[in-house]
# Entry
Amino acid sequence: MNQELLNSQHVEQGVSLSQDAFRRLRKNKLAMAGLLLLVCLVLIAILTPWIAPYSYDGQDLSLGATSPSQQHWLGTDALGRDQLTRVMYGSRVSLTVGFIATAVALLIGVLWGATAGFLGGRTDAIMMRLVDVLYAVPFTIFIILLTVIFGSSILLLFLAIGAVEWLTMARLVRGQVLTIKRQEFVEAAVSMGLSPWQIISRHLIPNVLGPIIVYTTLTIPSVILLESFLSFLGLGIQPPQSSWGSLISSGVETMEEYPWLLVFPALTLSLTLFSLNFLGDGLRDALDPRAAKD
Amino acid sequence: MLSVKNLRVVFNTRNGTNVAVDDLSFEINPGEVLGIVGESGSGKSVACYSLLGLIPSPPGKIERGSAEFLGEDLLRMSETELRKIRGLKISMIFQDPMTSLNPYMRIIDQLIESVLEHQKLSKAEARERAIRALEEVGIRDAETRIYDYPHQFSGGMRQRVMIAIALITQPQLLIADEPTTALDVTVQAQILALIKKLQKTHNLAVIFITHDLGVASQMADKIIVMEKGKLVEQGTTEQIFTQPSQPYTKKLLSAVLTTSKPTSSLAEKTEPPFFQVKRLRTYFPKFSGTFIKRLVSTHKAVDDISLTINRGEILGVVGESGSGKSTLGRSIMRLVDAQSGEVLLEGRDLLKLSDSDLKKSRHNFQMIFQDPYASLNPRMTVFDTLAEPLLVHKLATKNNVVEQVNQLMDDVGLERRFIRKYPHEFSGGQRQRIAIARAIALKPKLIIADEPVSALDVTIRAQILKLLLELTQKHQLTMLFISHDMSVVRYLCDRVLVMQNGKLIEEGATESIFAAPGQIYTQQLLAAIPKI
# Structure
């Protein structure tokens, strides 16, 4: 009786896919561990200005590069700056860039690809040719041009990365939508009188979530590394500010003398990557009712 | 010749052990045809595949049993030994001739592949053999056609090629797994006759797996009936059909539709007619070239079709695949664009509606699709699927939508507690019930049913047809029922329309068409119904 009551309440709320998915995600230990780790990283990034042991540009030239010690857990760099502090400050930049630029790419790419794929015909041709044209623009020149015109700012960084990453996403989603829209349940939706937008948002996108999520978890780390390349070109953050990407690239230069300068930022990035992948896999399974084990 | 004893096959899955075949015993002698009958999931295919070591293992596992073939136990053989049996002494024909041939290989190479593998023959001898094999299965111009690729053959012809491949090594036992299920009815009749003829001339033993008792009765000398992996009943074909002893066998037999429509509907003629199609044409132009498109040819899928349906009437549209009957339905639904013509529902032309008017009036005409596995969104629960049309057309509010959905579940005979489940948790028949519920949710004036039962097992088919009949009477539905199966049409429809190559060739009341078909093509369709 009790159970029945519970069930009927569930029905009245109209359990949505996302609620269902979250229930399933909670059962996936690996994915939850990934989520927990990501939340910790984000919290640390937010709280850095208050909890960081040193200031990010505080130099101690007399110290020079030292290996990890009691005072400097992750050692110091050649200018005597505390590496832990720099990794913490770096996470602010890297995580923001990673998440926001990917979110921008996701939003534009998914909508663009799904619309092109669903409408098909001439609209599709025009929309996808535009993507091809943008693909053909040399990325480096595009960035240098942006820097020359607008100078260097973090906002521009999001824009630049978003502008390239959504192209692949759009192609991926379009391809998936093309195969799914031939299925009868989409025709059924058309014959029920749903508008194109309702069909895209309710019937098409939920069914392409799997590849989208996997690609997203791959995009975030690549965006984080891309940031260091852009910073090198003068767009984005400038020294003495730090990011994981810039810490890694400067760490590579001195990897034989001071390996800890490479190891710790790289380790943090890898941990983030692992968490994202586990979470992504978990999300993909959780969002697919067919993969449910219960 | 082959004697299977106490066979038990299990599949170890994440959700525990699934017994596919349990304690199955049967035997077959040279020159005998054994029919294995059962619904999908009854283990009839798994049983035969496991004999040849063709089940995926793991998860599949043969737990017990023996299978003596010419004095040797197939189940104890090594893979190398089995390979000498497969294709040489025991051959197989599969269900789908479209996928069981390699599209990149010429017919001749596929024909002589197993001959060269098993027997010492020169290429020229093998070619001779291939030509003879093709001639034997009734393919004309075999000498030139052996150099063709599979896509140059029609479905029926491909199944003939498959049979030629199976028989070219002169096996002693042929396992045919639903060899005609994917084929049109008239083609099915030809293929069955061919297998029967070859079986006689070669004195072959045949294991014929089918879900269709009608087909089994034509082919088999003796029949075993399987349900859920277990043998239910066995006997000679005559025994099974005249004195079935088990309730399950009786249920299968009663599912074979031999009756005409139980009650005639209360169709009333009105002026103007309730639903009318006038001179409808749907052409598919074929273009070549990527940039400069050149019209190559026009495929006339629906060519000048006119029809009327009265209120409360069920009109059957019959024809083989490619006859344009599905395109007719989809043109009326405006899922494809028609070239010219009128589609009048209560005097209003559906083809002239603007996009926004069309969206608003779509609730007046709904469609039931063929494949219940593809027609439901896998990521939406039953509740969401059924609530969506109601909410979009504002026929329900957030408050009473649950009640309405429950009502629909009752209507189609599904339990209310299933409302939160996803489509993959249902069987094919249950899914088709959901699809039907979705179609009637909007209380449409016209329903177009495109082969709604042809993807279903025979017993399920009978249940769904009964449901459709009940619903049409309860809700006063008017239906256009598209099918290739004359027995289904006879059970459900008041009038029938026969289509061939996009054209209407015959029309009339169901019983009069059955009694006196006017066209040769209609006669062929009727003759193709398996008789018991």
In short: Chain B has a mean pLDDT of 85. Chain B touches chain A through 40 residues (CB under 8 Å).
